[in-house]
Amino acid sequence: MASQAEIINELNASTDRESKAAASVNPKVGRVTMAFRLTVVPSVCFFKTYISRGGPRGGASAFQDAVNAWAGAFLTEAKLYELTFADTAKAIAESRDFG
To answer: Nearest to residue 20, comparing CAs of 83, 69, 66?
Structure first.
């Protein structure tokens, strides 16, 4: 069984790959579109997973799987938002001041 740190590192690497692939496909995305994707894509992923796992008949495990799928989709979209709209100049200036 993998440790919690290994699982977190694997999830981080996976969402990094997915968000960079999505950013390379469509680099010119507006803020409204990104806000829409940040809210709708994880929600659709949640309901799709919940229904495919049996919905209310699937019990707590179906709900837990759906929440985990929602979290993964949200992390991917959040990283895509960060890649698209991050102000790297400010971060670089602050890191120079820190040293």
So the answer is: 83
Statement: the pTM of the whole predicted model exceeds 0.90: no
99 lies in some domain: no
Rounded to whole angstroms, the Cα distance separating 47 from 10 reads 24
Compute the distance between CA of residue 27 and CA of residue 22 in angstroms, rounded to an integer. Answer: 8
Write the CB contacts of 18 (distance below 8 Å, at least 6 apart in sequence): 76, 79
Domain assignment present for residue 52? The answer is: yes
Please work out, in degrees rounded to the nearest 5, the angle formed at the alpha carbon of residue 87 by the alpha carbons of 86 and 92: 120
Residue type at position 60? A
State which residues form the domain around 76.
45-86
Residue 77 lies in a domain: yes
Token pair in block for residue 80: 């895509």
Give the position of tokens 């010119």: 28
The 10s digit of each residue's pLDDT in 17-49 is 777 777 676 656 666 777 888 899 999 999 999
